[in-house]
Amino acid sequence: MSRIKTFKGGIHPAHDGKELTCNMPITEAPLLEKYYVLFSENAGKAPRPTAAVGDKVKKYQLLAEADGFVSANLHSPTSGEITAIVELPGATGVPDKAFEITADGKDHGEVPFAPVSDWKNADSAVIMERIREAGIVGMGGAAFPSHVKLTVPPGKNVDTLIINGAECEPYLTADHRLMVEFPEKVLCGAAIMAKMLNVANVFVGIENNKRDAIASLESLAPEYGIKVIPLQVRYPQGAEKQLIKAITDRTVPSGGLPADAGCIVQNAGSSAAVYEAVVLGIPLIERIVTVTGEVVKNPGNFKLKIGTPVIEAVKMAGGITEEPGKLILGGPMMGFSQKSFDVPVAKNTSGILLLPVDKVLNFASSPCIRCARCVEACPMNLMPCLLCADVEGNRFDLAQSDHVMDCLECGACAYVCPSHRPLVQLLRRAKAEVRKAKNKGTVQK
Questions:
Q1: Within this chain, do residues 26 and 115 fall inside the same structural domain, yes or no?
Q2: pLDDT digits (tens, 9 = 90+) for 167-189
Q3: Structurally, how many domains does the chain consist of?
């Protein structure tokens, strides 16, 4: 038997919390009275609003139009009226404007796009345009517009499409349940993208702790010419460069993109969204979200409309058993801590995590003891201890030359650090300073 595929470095958290929801079927959320759809739900430039306060809107109606290439359309999750434009915290904590939609209770709207039922014989440009029109983004967290990721740069030879079903973040099981319950959506979406890209190699990478998801996909994968690849349970197995290395043994060069290794990677949720957009004519207005944590009464996976307030999602899970110590959107490793329950669900909200007080540690950082655990854990073969010394000395030029821009911000280094050093925060600062210097056309020191 061949060795289960993986990458060098990474960690395996002692407690991943997935047992709370991995066997919980997806629950359809009830219709709410109000939704708050953030203007900016994609990486890149925010779309340009096409709707205003007082407008009556239908389900699927365009609310904001992509403003440039790296931008994504935004659609109404239900029918009703835009009753206000409000300012709310976004997933990263940065305030953002949002459409307040007061639902009319009918949830009515006509499917806006003509289904491309014969997608196997459709022109690739037609499929690409449909993906763009539907406002699909990377649903694993990055929210990068999918039509941009699927555009092969000039001079690049892409022969492989990888669907990321690793879902390596602790606690999160949204993609897991999607692959178990709707494998045909994931696989058909992958086949559609493969046809559009004209690639012969199509893989779905899934960590080996999701045996039911692997079995579910394997039962249908041959029909689509797709191979399901079990992967070692290892964080961050789902990072693009690590996934490419594990499955194809190709290396994305420093500062490069997956296309430089002949690959394009899409999340399992994004693949299912492509199926719905192309075959059903439905834009991206809802997604599966894991609502979980030890203080949640009934943790589970919920199909939520974009714009669902987090507080309402927690109520759907039965509420809380005690005051949480921390609220996180996403997983505990790469998610963003929130100050308010007012933040709404966005296209890239994979999880709502509430941790108890005893799991939220406040500790003092100590000096680096040069143990090199961070170096061993780094999946990008960086030296976090050295990089952070650069940052603390305000030598961002050295951090740049030491390849800080290759950092994934996965948190593996901080997880293993016995001195509790704020490594991720320091590395994020360094990357921000390097970007700022680049924009100014200077070398930051």
A1: yes
A2: 999 999 999 999 999 999 999 99
A3: 2
